[in-house]
Amino acid sequence: MNTRICYLYRDASNYKQCGIVVVHGEITSEDLRPHLHFGDLFIPHDVGLPELQKNFAAQGFAFPDDDDHVWHELEMCEPTEDNPTLDISAAELLERFRTADAARWDVQGAEIRLGLNRK
Description:
28% helix, 24% strand, 119 residues, 4 strands, alpha+beta, 4-stranded antiparallel β-sheet, single chain
């Protein structure tokens, strides 16, 4: 059994981009929640998942703009028989979440990478 992970990027104006990945093995939202910022937020790049903000630019919308930020929301993890879309196991993903949380997530690195450093 594998796990489908659904997550969301929501900018300050509530425009959304959804992401879905499948990892090998089983993991639950409850496994990840203790390692999320404020219980549901994370920076995908820090754990090896695709960041969704740049999808706005690919769809012809302005990116970045003043509404953009670095955080994504975990929506759910569910079992699936689908093939993995990422070369990462559930156990490895959990360890990446633990490590990123312990390091307090790389907000500054994400802002620079995404062009959000507005200073």
